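**Protein record**
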Amino acid sequence: MANITLKGNAVKTVGNLPQIGDDLKDFKLVNEKLEEKTLSDYSGKRIILNIFPSIDTGICAESARKFNVEAGTLNNAVVINVSKDLPFALGRFCAAEGLNHVESLSDYRGTFGDDYGVEMEDSPMQGLLSRAVIVADENGKVIYTEQVPEIAQEPDYQNALAALA
């Protein structure tokens, strides 16, 4: 399990991020149309998983905005925002913000948090996903991970993007 903090207070996750060189695990996430999306929907594409607790918090919203800007410049790559937010909330936020270069998918009825080791198991945010970034190549091999150590901190965008170079 990862030991992270929320405003300096210890928080534990249910596991650890995949290791570099691992295959991404399959997932079932839900889009704003309530359609299930799986890893195979992105076959042959490079993937950035931008994982966060809730789009309704400032830092989570900012990470979605920043990755949206960068996603518009990427070749053969997709940025997927993943949270436990309802798909409707994710869709509403992206529409209001004009985020059209990222996909936002919900784990509200799935096991992504457990499978990827990012579900928080204690703290007031118990049950939500921790802030993390996982990058995979077009073959689904993990090439970069970041478990952000402080939930109130933004991920390292440049290192995540550099992994695709």
